[in-house]
Write a structure and sequence with these properties.
This protein has 106 residues and is mainly α. It has one domain: 3-Layer(bba) Sandwich (FAD/NAD(P)-binding domain), CATH 3.50.50. The protein is built from three helices and no strands. Helix 2 runs antiparallel to helix 3. The radius of gyration is 17 Å and the shape is elongated. The structure holds flavin-adenine dinucleotide. The site of flavin-adenine dinucleotide (FAD) has 10 residues, from helix 2. Flavin-adenine dinucleotide binds next to helix 2.
Length: 106
């Protein structure tokens, strides 16, 4: 399902890293914010996630508070990248359609 979203440049490329309400669980990488491939940033985002998560986990305090902190620190940037990547894909597809039509009608 994720791959279908990725390659389709659909309106929604998947769940972004929305801060969760509770639980000692979090996500990172593609599981947190599947991204269309147009900007080549998926692995970069996963590495950044891992670094920020490690920094949050080394702090003292309740584990759930630290996980929520990690999610809130990553949300804005990963949302920006997923949106821009999707936009780049949509523009690329428009150009392909335009070229195809030019070819068809001279
Ligand atoms: C063709 C292509 C080109 C790309 N080019 C770029 C690029 O140039 N730059 C860039 O930054 N990103 C690029 N990406 C995106 C990048 O590959 C991903 O964003 C990145 O690999 C995500 O890392 P991840 O650890 O979140 O997930 P993954 O790399 O998918 O790792 C998840 C791992 O979990 C394993 N797994 C799944 N289910 C289970 C289970 N139930 N139990 C145990 N293990 C499980 C999988 O086998 C896999 O090894 C590209 C992707 C594709 C497909």
């Amino acid at each position: 399902m994720v791959l279908g979203c990725l390659l389709g440049n659909s309106g929604n490329s998947g769940p972004n890293l929305v801060p969760k309400k509770s639980g000692p669980v979090t996500l990172l990488g593609d599981a947190a914010h599947p991204t269309t491939p147009n900007l080549g940033q998926g692995a970069c985002m996963a590495i950044e996630d891992a670094l920020v998560l490690a920094q949050c986990l080394t702090r003292k305090g309740e584990i759930q508070v630290r996980l929520r902190k990690y999610e809130s620190l990553r949300f804005k940037r990963t949302e920006y990248i997923t949106c821009e990547s999707r936009r780049a894909g949509q523009i690329g597809q428009m150009e392909i359609l335009w070229l195809w039509r030019s070819d068809q009608f001279g």
